[in-house]
Specification:
By secondary structure, the protein is of the alpha+beta class. It has helices spanning 2-20, 36-51, 64-76, 91-97, 118-123, 146-151, 162-172, 193-203, 220-236, 246-254, 267-271, 314-324, 327-337, 348-352, 354-359, 363-372, 396-411, 417-434, and strands at 26-33, 55-62, 84-87, 125-126, 129-130, 133-138, 140-145, 260-264, 283-287, 301-306.
Length: 439
């Protein structure tokens, strides 16, 4: 009788838990960057949870440098803290080669993989397999205030030179009214100041490594570009430039405090949005500036969602990725936040959508910039690596971060540019020798 009572009790308890939904939900831990588009994704994710009541989303939203550090550490030691990781086109092929990421070989036809822009798909693939799904893709471009240019009698060329940019900055610089000639990334990090400075160095004729993998940071091109960068920002930039990355400069420009800003094309959707930008009606845009060559003057990047092989819930994670990178999600953003706010750069259908074309006057320009960003032929002289603002080797993350710290020190006036580059050359050469690239 006691056995029967126990069985009856367990049956009734199970039935109660099932009916009441008291079973623990599957919790997905999602690590992402604190950029505007990802913040929107987090807010709209309640729609995903409504469609999937058995899944609960746990968000870890971090500043870019911190995110990269934590994700790299976790995946390298197989920590398994995260089910979904926000990573970029640098990490994907490297991590895929080490079997750290789950491949997407069986996407449903409804996802419409053929709609993905080829340049983006290629950047997230390794040995013919896709290892991440793109949330948004970007290149870089020039943003400027048309009203300031008009008042100063200036005309922005379709593709300005850096010398022209310096002249423009001098003409519109008005610090007494908190309007600064130019804003650029100064915050240290391989994906912060070095993402920008690398493209500037490319356009001055430089490269990270020569054909034999010897570092080239002591070259004339690096010295010319870095001196120009430091002088330009210290003369015509806002206060606190050494702490300014993408988000900080976005805020400054949106508040009307930057006359020019060269940065990610993804910012266009935010700066043209009158709900977040005070200068949306005065925003002009042009191609990224160049020094002596346009080669490598604008970068390529894709913030994407990936599933580490250590995920405890890969099937549920895949459901989320399919939702967050789908055409349906883009439509949801357009209908709730306005079509100008749609994450750009991933799907052809976005650029063919009349509603997006009407809301985003920059659409065709940005698509062309992304598709024309050549990660192979991006320097004046030959190079052995793939990448525009980075080199696709595992060591680059550490190298880029350390060099970024040296450049940040030069920008702050703590050390001369020549000393910063000399130290950077030593750091990089030591690492390349240790890794066996250079004898």
């Amino acid at each position: 009788m006691r056995l029967f009572q126990k069985i009856t009790y367990l049956f009734l308890l199970t039935s109660f838990l099932t009916v009441s939904g008291a079973y623990a939900k599957t919790k997905l831990t999602i690590a992402t960057v604190n950029n505007g588009d990802m913040v929107v994704m987090q807010k709209l994710s309640s729609e995903f949870e409504k469609q999937n009541p058995d899944i609960e989303l746990d968000w870890v939203v971090l500043e870019e440098n911190v995110l990269r550090q934590r994700l790299t550490t976790d995946i390298a030691i197989a920590g398994g803290q995260y089910d979904v990781m926000t990573i970029g086109s640098y990490e994907v092929p490297i991590w895929a080669s080490r079997r750290w990421l789950t491949a997407f070989n069986d996407l449903p036809s409804s996802y419409d993989l053929g709609d993905m822009l080829p340049a983006v798909r290629d950047g997230l693939s390794y040995e013919g397999n896709l290892y991440a799904l793109p949330f948004y893709a970007e290149s870089s471009m020039m943003f400027y205030r048309k009203d300031l240019f008009k008042n100063a009698g200036l005309t922005m060329p379709e593709r300005p030179t850096w010398e022209q940019v310096k002249q423009f900055a001098a003409a519109i610089h008005d610090p007494s009214n908190k309007v600064y000639g130019i804003c650029l990334r100064g915050k240290a990090g391989w994906g912060e100041n070095m993402a920008f400075l690398s493209t500037m160095v490319n356009s001055f004729g430089g490269r990270w490594f020569d054909e034999n993998w010897k570092p080239a940071l002591d070259s004339k091109a690096w010295k010319d570009a870095t001196n120009f960068y430091v002088s330009l920002l210290n003369t015509y930039g806002p206060p606190g430039t050494t702490a300014n990355g993408f988000n900080e400069n976005l805020s400054l420009f949106a508040n009307g405090q930057c006359g020019m800003w060269i940065d990610a094309t993804v910012a266009a959707g935010m700066l043209f949005n009158p709900e977040v930008s005070k200068v949306s009606d005065q925003l002009g845009f042009a191609q990224a500036p160049y020094g002596i060559t346009p080669k490598g003057s604008h970068w390529f990047w894709a913030w994407s969602l990936a599933i580490p092989t250590t995920s405890k819930n890969p099937e549920e994670a895949k459901k989320f990725l399919l939702w967050a990178t789908s055409k349906e999600y883009l439509k949801l953003v357009g209908e709730t936040n306005g079509w100008v706010a749609v994450p750009p750069g991933t799907r052809a259908s976005t650029y063919e959508n009349p509603k997006y074309q009407e809301a985003a006057p920059f659409a065709a320009f940005v698509r062309k910039a992304i598709e024309n960003a050549d990660t192979i032929d991006s320097t004046l002289e030959p190079k052995p690596y793939i990448g525009i603002q980075y080199a696709t080797i595992p060591e680059f993350q550490s190298i880029g971060t350390q060099v970024g710290q040296q450049i940040n020190g030069a920008l702050a006036g703590k050390i001369p540019v020549e000393e910063a580059l000399k130290t950077s050359q030593k750091i990089t050469l030591r690492q390349m020798r240790r890794s066996g690239y250079v004898k």
